[in-house]
Write a structure and sequence with these properties.
406 residues; binds nickel (II) ion; seven-stranded mixed β-sheet; 2 domains; alpha/beta; 9 helices; Alpha-Beta Plaits; Aminopeptidase; four-stranded antiparallel β-sheet
Length: 406
């Protein structure tokens, strides 16, 4: 689906430092050409390490597999703020005609993580240029495996990436908005997501002519599926967004044999964790009760639940003001409704305050394809702008924090 909203032309935007922009664009294109899937970002991590080392930074030892951090110290000691980028690509075969398109068949940076890493490098460069102006440390995190489960953020936290950090910021590209615009939301930005699987079994498989002599697992599974679809909004407060989608339904081979096993699964997504916990329990009970009523064995399995990204008030205010001050009041847009998608930045926000900013990245037909589309691409004008914004946000965070302490 492609949005039809009018987009600001990139020519209207303030001109960034051309050398800085060229440096970022070159890095982004190189990362884009060599996408790697979650926890396999070896070449990507090495390229980032080389890029940073050539410019005088000192990347940490590897953490969480391919991840690492870079600390940029201000001239005086003080608090620490973090900025996070994700490194992995998706198992999608790129369909763009871009000269920098993926050279790896079946892998593509279709979620803009190439841009996120590039912006993080830009934040490091800009933070260091201004180190005389702040007390404390800007820590830039390069995190593996945002797209897979279990994902990279908990592993980074486990490895100590947040130790001593008082708040964390990040961006996500947004092809539904024009380049030069930044989206902000206090509270939930994404939904909590629980993947699930329901298995219906019986030893009494049988002839399609006489289902009453068997246990019809296909019929029982479809009764359960129907019931599950009706739960959001019937047993939960309709004002609290929840969506259950079944994406897989498997069972049977022959057209005249009732199979002994049927499995289906999908995702349950809710903006608030309480609703999700309640529905998870209801799904177990409803599936179990229907299985018992029709004499089938039913198992319900939930994978790891990804929490919602919940942005904190103070951090959103700071980032919104920075966007307005740098790029004008038109640049900062409130986001009315949370996305029902998921983002593992949520794990950091369970530990410390922070804010994820949506970065408009569209300027024409080639850059309006949605995230995870085989033709996804972005207007590279977003790179230097996002780097300037997020370096400014980190800088302001440290200054605010230091003045609170003194
Ligand atoms: Ni993403």
């Amino acid at each position: 689906m492609i949005a039809d909203a009018p987009l600001a032309s990139p020519a209207d935007l303030p001109a960034p430092d051309p050398a800085f922009r060229a440096d970022l664009v070159a890095l982004r294109r190189e990362l884009h050409q060599h996408p790697e899937l979650g926890f396999q970002e070896h070449r990507t991590a090495q390229r980032l390490r080389d890029w940073l080392t050539e410019r005088g930074f000192e990347p940490s030892a590897p953490m969480a597999g391919t991840g690492f951090v870079v600390d940029i110290h201000g001239d005086r000691p003080g608090p620490m703020v973090a900025y996070r980028a994700d490194m992995d690509a998706l198992p999608i075969h790129e369909a763009t005609d871009a000269p920098y398109r993926s050279l790896t068949p079946g892998a593509m940076h279709a979620c803009g993580h190439d841009a996120h890493m590039t912006v993080a490098c830009g934040v490091a460069v800009l933070a260091r240029e201004r180190r005389a102006e702040f007390a404390g440390t800007v820590r830039v995190l390069f995190q593996p495996a945002e797209e897979v489960s279990p994902s990279g953020a908990p592993a980074m936290i486990q490895a100590g990436a947040l130790s001593g950090v008082e708040a964390i910021y990040a961006i996500h590209m947004d092809p539904s908005q024009a380049v030069g615009r930044f989206g902000f939301r206090v509270g939930s930005l994404t939904a909590a997501c629980a993947p699930f699987r329901v298995t219906v079994r019986s030893e009494r498989s049988g002839h399609s002519a006489r289902p009453h002599e068997a246990v019809d697992t296909v019929w029982v599974a479809s009764q359960i599926a129907n019931e599950l679809y009706q739960l959001p909004g019937r047993v939960t407060d309709a004002r609290k967004a929840a969506v259950l989608t079944i994406c897989r339904f498997r069972g049977g081979d022959a057209l005249n044999v009732i199979p002994s096993e049927v499995e289906f699964g999908g995702t349950l997504r809710c903006v608030d964790g309480e609703t999700l916990g309640f529905l998870r329990e209801k799904i177990r009970r409803v599936a179990g009760a229907l299985g018992a009523a029709y004499k089938a064995d039913v198992d319900v399995d939930f994978d790891i639940t990804l929490p919602a990204v919940v942005n904190t008030t103070e951090e959103v205010r700071r980032a919104t003001e920075a966007a307005t001050d740098l790029f004008g009041p038109e640049a900062a847009m409130p986001i009315q409704l949370p996305s029902m998608g998921g983002e593992d930045f949520a794990y950091y926000l369970q530990e410390i305050p922070g804010c994820m900013v949506r970065v408009g990245s569209a300027s024409g037909p080639d850059t309006r394809y949605p995230l995870h589309h085989a033709r996804f691409d972005l207007d590279e004008g977003a790179l230097p702008m996002a780097a300037r914004l997020m370096a400014e946000v980190c800088h302001r965070h440290l200054n605010d924090s230091s003045s609170r302490r003194s």
